[in-house]
Amino acid sequence: MVSNSDTINNEDDLPESIQSRLCEICYFRIWERNNFTSKVEDYFLSKKTEVGDEKPGKHIKTNPCCLCFGLLTLPLLEQSILLIKQILNNDKYKQDLERKQCCLSFSIPPAIFIREAVLKVFIKDKYEGLLDFERKSAFITIKESWRTCLEQLANDLKFDDNNPLRITVTALYIDNNEECKQLSHIPGTYFPNANKKSAGPEYIYSRASVLNAIGSISEEDLKKNLPFPPSIPQHFATLTASGKHDSVFIAGRYNKYSRNLSQTPWTIDGVRKSDLSVDELLSGPIKSVFRAEHHNFSSSGREDVDVRMLGSGRPFIVELIDPGLSDILFEKMRSIECDINNSSLVKVRDLQIISKNEIKNLKEGEEEKKKTYKALCITKQVPAPEAIMKIQNSERLVLEQKNPHTCPS
Fold it and tell me: Catalytic one among 6, 125, 304, 339?
């Protein structure tokens, strides 16, 4: 029997059936948990200093790892770094100073969770006391291990969970759906979306549904119905990456001087009824500077197409979707105002970046603000002084108004 320890001092204590199936990093995250970071650092340091012909070692494998599908091997780790840097160096996200920070996410195939569950049962069943299974997780997670490896290999990259630019690296495994499907044949498992005709395999075997299914299966059923220990995969995982910046919210006030300008693009039955709108005149220059292709426009109230907006102006917000920049200099914001104000149709002032939490102030103001109207009333007969006095003394009047339905905001 192997002693109860997180670190195995003698590799011969481990069965060849396990050793031959694991990559070096998965070996460390299972049996070197207390020394994981230092083991990873030493391993990568040895890889950097290797020259000439390399002696094959016990943990150097040419087949995909049975737990991570090769995601924690050097070739795919280096590919992950390359994909991340390609997004950081994209012209859209480049700042005046080269960006080196991002919020990092890693999406892995759910089949990995199945294989880890099987291996835990295998070790517990065959080598009692080898791992401390009273812990919430007997292994260091693959996501934590992946991030530790990237930090060791790419010192120039910094990962900050609060950074507005989120880069997601997605790992794909060609046999993922087939391996997940094995769970559905085990009595007692349930996949909520399995009976939906429109649901594809990725939707049926989501991360949450696979983890829920694993939690409902007994150790005995895992041993009976799944490869025990996990089999060697036939394919390595593949990687893709995408970047998305948190929305940026620009607030300000606008005046409208035209009686032929709608607030938002005006179309009827797919036909454009006006060439421009307040939305487009304001959002265009803002999007250009912040390198955003899409936006949402909202304002505190609205006016009809033939109504001007005078006075101190109407508050508005432009939400920039996936912009390239998160902030600009004060002078650049004033430059945007000048570009917009070159138009004779609209003017803006007080452009500023606000937080998402501040948006509610716009809606609250729309509901609470009192409005003053001047109106010319025409009557068939001259009203009696008493009637005029009654109207003047009324605290509240109900107006019955009928607007043309072709008149946009």
Answer: 304
